[in-house]
Amino acid sequence: MDYEDFYGEYGTIANALREQLSAQQRILKRICKNVENGDLKPTARDLASAASGAEECVRLLSEISEKIAGVDMGAYLESGDFARQLVTLCGENGINIKGEGTSYEIFPYRLKIDPQNEDVLVNGRKAIGLRPRAVAAELAKGRARLLAAAFNPAQYASELASAYDLALLADSKGKPVAPDADIYLTKLYKYLTPMRRFRREYDAQAYAFDLARLYTAESNESSDGRRFQFGPSRFNSKAIRIVDASGNEQFLATIRFYRE
């Protein structure tokens, strides 16, 4: 099934119904005016037209009902048609999407398809609906809104540096601390969100998005004067996938803070 085909067929019937309802409004307005003026002769003809129009409205509503009832959204999701159409539409709109089956990442969102419950979840919440075009547009709008939000790279780098210092101290286990060692970004996230409720308010996707904005910042200096440098890893399981402002995919694994 292609949702746009279904939507086009539905739209044809809905437009016909809209025209009928508009005609009914005009007839009712004319009837009310004539009755107000005491001109009752034309009302018989108008009432007959209204009755005929009402029958047509009922017929069109029945046709819409049959059209909608004939769509199995669970099967649509399970067949993979929804996912294929979403991937195509994201590509057409320059939205970076990665995944397969029922799990996809549209940075910084994670999308999960749940055929059993006829749901699509974006970061654990129900999507706007199950029309791929509408979902793709909402994702693009949400990402643009996030990119436009205020972000202070130096301040965020300082907050990250504080977590970095704690991680270095914990890793030293009483031995001299290496002041500019590489630390995995996944480890720093645990120091930034030590409690579960913190992780609900600042989830891994939000963390990755902030890292992406820090990665593309013009300056690599934190508020305390230290500079930072991201590093890769041979193991992607230890790296955090980001998509920069240009739509390029990057994998960030470590960070170090140092003084020149």
Report what the structure shows.
- The chain has 260 residues and is an alpha+beta fold.
- It has helices at residues 3-37, 41-69, 73-79, 81-92, 132-148, 153-172, 185-192, 196-201, 204-215; strands spanning 98-100, 103-106, 109-114, 119-122, 125-126, 183-184, 227-231, 240-243, 249-252, 254-258.
- A five-stranded antiparallel beta sheet has the order 1-2-3-4-5, with helices on one face. The protein has a three-stranded antiparallel beta sheet with strand order 6-10-7.
- Helix 1 (3-37) packs antiparallel against helix 2 (41-69), helix 4 (81-92) packs across helix 5 (132-148) and helix 6 crosses helix 7.
- The N and C termini lie far apart (60 Å).
- The mean pLDDT is 91.
Secondary-structure-derived class:
alpha+beta
Shape: elongated
- Number of β-strand runs: 10
What is the makeup of the main sheet?
Answer: 5 strands, antiparallel
| Parts with pLDDT < 50 across at least 5 consecutive residues | none
Q: What amount of the residues lies in strands?
A: 15-25%
In N-to-C order, the SSE pattern is: HHHHEEEEEHHEHHHEEEE
**Count of DSSP helices?**
9
Q: What does the average pLDDT come to?
A: 91
List the helices and strands and how they pair.
Blueprint: H1 3-37, H2 41-69, H3 73-79, H4 81-92, E1 98-100, E2 103-106, E3 109-114, E4 119-122, E5 125-126, H5 132-148, H6 153-172, E6 183-184, H7 185-192, H8 196-201, H9 204-215, E7 227-231, E8 240-243, E9 249-252, E10 254-258
Antiparallel strand pairs: 1-2, 2-3, 3-4, 4-5, 6-10, 7-10, 8-9
Helix pairs in contact: 1-2, 4-5, 6-7
